[in-house]
Design a protein that fits this description.
By secondary structure, this protein is mainly β. The chain is about 0% helix and about 45% strand. Strand 17 and strand 18 form a beta hairpin. It starts with a strand and ends with a strand.
């Protein structure tokens, strides 16, 4: 059993409980109910919960995305609704609220600004994209986007997006991941 959790801009604690019943719930200290402030949002088993900058959350599943707005209304995207691919590997929401995600196997990189999708892997205007794909994506508090890419030597390398172009930073490395790579930016450092 495992749990995924995140705190949104309105201080609601969102959790997914994986077990006999896969449920999404949130806790709001300002709500008085018979569940001690907990409200079941609904069934489901997203692999990640990401908070946006407007009080909403993204529920990231293997094959779909659901954006729950601050007012708890929601919109879901699958490939039938415009989601560009049917697989989501890693994901990140930047300081502007744009959702970024990579895909499994092909390691493509997409972003969604709330209205349209951008495919960075096949878009010719995004020069410098790693030749063998992007395995993980993250960003920092200043708005920079970083990714772990697979370079021409089939080694991992960190890339950053500058003026619609990917730039290699740091030395290449070879990493063995148990499941999938994780990249985090904080206080001016990448981890």
């Amino acid at each position: 059993r495992r749990t995924t959790a995140a705190v949104d801009k309105l201080s609601r604690l969102w959790m997914v409980y994986y077990g006999e019943m896969n449920e999404i719930a949130y806790y709001d200290q300002n709500v008085q109910n018979d569940q001690n402030g907990w409200t079941t949002y609904g069934p489901g088993s997203p692999k990640t919960i990401l908070c946006d900058t407007k009080g909403g959350v993204w529920l990231v599943y293997e094959t779909k995305l659901t954006h729950v707005h601050a007012d708890l209304t929601a919109q879901t995207w699958t490939t039938s609704d415009g989601l560009p691919t049917d697989g989501i590997y890693t994901s990140y929401v930047d300081i502007d609220g744009t959702l970024w995600y990579t895909t499994p196997y092909t390691y493509d990189l997409y972003s969604f600004n709330g209205a349209s999708w951008t495919d960075y892997s096949s878009n010719g205007s995004n020069k410098g994209y790693p030749p063998n794909g992007m395995m993980a994506v993250t960003g920092d508090e200043t708005g920079h986007i970083y990714g772990v890419g697979v370079n021409e030597n089939w080694h991992n390398q960190v890339y950053t997006l500058e003026n619609s172009q990917f730039v290699k930073i740091g030395a290449e490395f070879y990493a063995v991941f148990d499941e999938k790579p994780t990249l985090t930016a904080a206080n001016g450092y990448l981890y």
